[in-house]
Each structure stands twice: as structure tokens, then as C-alpha cells.
Write a structure and sequence with these properties.
Layout (H helix, E strand, L loop, with lengths): L3 E10 L2 E7 L2 E2 L4 E5 L6 H8 L7 E6 L2 E2 L4 H7 E4 L11 H11 L5 H11 L12 H13 L5 E5 L7 H16 L3 E6 L2 H7 L2 E6 L2 E7 H5 L4 E8 L8 E7 L2 E6 L3 H9 L2 E8 L3 H10 L1
Parallel strand pairs: 4-9, 4-10, 7-8, 8-9
Antiparallel strand pairs: 1-2, 1-3, 1-5, 5-6, 10-11, 12-14, 12-15, 13-14
Helix pairs in contact: 3-5, 4-5
């Protein structure tokens, strides 16, 4: 059984775009990255999976539970971090964390204490006085402290400084090793490349790429950077061509012998051929 399984899941807002016929499978125990630019449909997908908004058509199961008829059971077994964190005014941090644990009828004092120490949270502060980053850290504790089977995190690193981002991913990796499935959305592709096993790229409400990160990195494309006068002519296999004065870069997926022959005929001072990053691969899909 997969942790998440969708079947043509669709959510529309009148004439506005939401998500369209999503086909998505996330295996139990996976560390899954859900990638796309702002407005692509990431948050709509997550809120629909959690039963916070109703699908227009199609269906989905989370931990084997139907997102419409069994949404309360889903919410009890999942840890959720929304992209925007809001707490009831006047509450202290420690009260927010305890309230979140009480909702699940669990004593999470020991786990929440460890998390608060690792993330540098002052539990005596009022939530009204917290910065964006500190609100996000409190949300992380609330999502993780009951050690859920599935963690769904929407743009979790926004507002966190680099050191806290590193600590946060260390915590996620530990939870994943204990058996938790991690599903997190991001528009920062380097995060996905560094931490995820599997990834899907969503654009305009539709999934356009879905595979293991290793296979996505093994596209066969090369990133070519040259300094000097580059004349590509009729060379086939070039995409994402960028020219900046005396330097040119592009992705190449074609006959490497033809590439080398073309480069040899150009007046160049330097050539660099490397593997493209995941970001460059996805941006190529997006722009296409």
C-alpha cells in the first residue's frame, strides 16, 4: 500500500486553475519532493489530500484512507506544516505545542522538548512576538512531535536561516529512517536534489515529470559552457541556450561527436562540459 495514491484528482475554482487529473503515487517510507514554482498547484494538492478542501473530481487515498469519507482519520495520523503559520493570539509557545499534542491525545512532552532544544525555540514567548522563522519552527515541532506515519510539509524552509535548514533536514532524515514517509513541497530544487529519493514536478496544475531523483539526474543531457564565439549552426539537441557577451551556455542531448566537431570549428578560449543540476533539468522541462 502506498502512503499517497491519487486517481485523476482534480480541484477547480470556477474559471481559476487548481489541479487537473493528478496521477501520483508515493511509496511508504519514501522521501518525496513535490516541486513547482509558486502558483503551480502545490498547496492546492496538499490541502486536497488532507481533506481541507474538497476535490472537484477524481479520488485519492492517504495511508489507505479516502480523503473525503475518512479525512478525520487522515488528520490524526499525519503531521502537517502549512506554508503560512498562524496561531491563536495571546498564546504562549509551550501552550500551542501542548494543545497540538492534546488534539492527538498524546503525551509528546519529551519529544517536543528535544525538538525545541534542537531548533532553539523559547517556549516561554508569546506567539504574537515571534518572527516568521520562529513561527515556522514552532509549526515544525507541532507537526513532528507525535511522530506521525506521514509528514506533509508545504514550503517548510521558508523563513529558516541556513543553520536551521540543515538541522531541520537532519530531523526529517531521522524521522524517515524510523519509517515515516516524508512529502514536502518546494520551489528550491537544490533541497530536493540533496534530500529526496523521488520527485514530481508540477506546472499549471499538472504533473509533467515524475521519477526517482537518480533517474531524473541521468537524463543523458550535458551542460555545456563555452567562452568565445559559439556558432551552433544546425547542431541538433540544444536547449536552454543562453548567451552573455563572450560566454554561452546550453543543455545538449544529442550526438556527442557532432557537439565536439562543432566546438572544434568555433573560436573558443575555454570549454566546460558537466552534468546539469536538477534545477537546470526541471527548468528545461518547464520552459518547454
Amino acid at each position: 500500500m502506498n502512503a499517497i495514491e491519487t486517481d485523476k484528482l482534480t480541484k477547480t475554482y470556477g474559471s481559476s486553475r487548481g489541479i487537473t487529473e493528478l496521477e501520483l503515487s508515493v511509496a511508504k517510507g519514501d522521501f518525496f519532493g513535490f516541486i513547482g514554482p509558486n502558483g503551480a498547484g502545490k498547496s492546492t494538492t496538499i490541502r486536497t489530500l488532507l481533506g481541507l478542501i474538497s476535490p472537484t473530481s477524481g479520488s485519492a487515498k492517504v495511508l489507505g484512507c479516502d480523503i473525503v469519507s475518512q479525512k478525520n482519520e487522515i488528520l490524526g495520523r499525519v503531521g502537517y506544516l502549512p506554508s503560512e503559520i498562524n496561531f491563536a493570539s495571546g498564546m504562549k509557545v509551550k501552550d500551542v505545542i501542548k494543545y497540538s499534542a492534546d488534539l492527538r491525545h498524546k503525551n509528546c512532552r519529551e519529544k517536543s522538548g528535544v525538538l525545541c532544544e534542537r531548533l532553539g525555540i523559547d517556549t516561554g514567548k508569546k506567539v504574537d512576538d515571534l518572527s516568521l522563522g520562529n513561527r515556522k519552527k514552532v509549526g515544525i515541532v507541532c507537526a513532528i512531535q507525535h511522530e506521525p506515519e506521514l509528514l506533509i510539509l508545504d514550503e517548510p524552509t521558508s523563513g529558516l536561516d541556513p543553520l536551521m535548514q540543515r538541522e531541520f533536514f537532519d530531523i526529517l532524515t531521522e524521522q524517515n529512517k524510523k519509517g515515516a514517509t516524508i512529502f514536502f513541497s518546494s520551489h528550491i530544487l537544490s533541497e530536493v536534489q540533496s534530500h529526496c529519493n523521488t520527485a514530481a514536478f508540477i506546472r499549471d496544475g499538472r504533473i509533467i515529470v515524475y521519477d526517482s531523483v537518480c533517474k531524473l539526474e541521468e537524463t543523458g543531457a550535458k551542460k555545456v559552457e563555452v567562452v568565445g564565439t559559439f556558432e551552433g549552426g544546425d547542431l541538433k539537441g540544444i536547449s536552454d541556450l543562453k548567451n552573455d557577451g563572450n560566454s554561452t551556455s546550453f543543455l545538449f542531448k544529442g550526438d556527442i561527436r557532432e557537439l565536439l566537431k562543432t566546438l572544434a570549428d568555433c573560436k573558443l578560449q575555454n570549454v566546460n562540459i558537466t552534468e546539469p543540476t536538477l534545477e537546470e533539468i526541471f527548468m528545461n522541462y518547464y520552459e518547454a
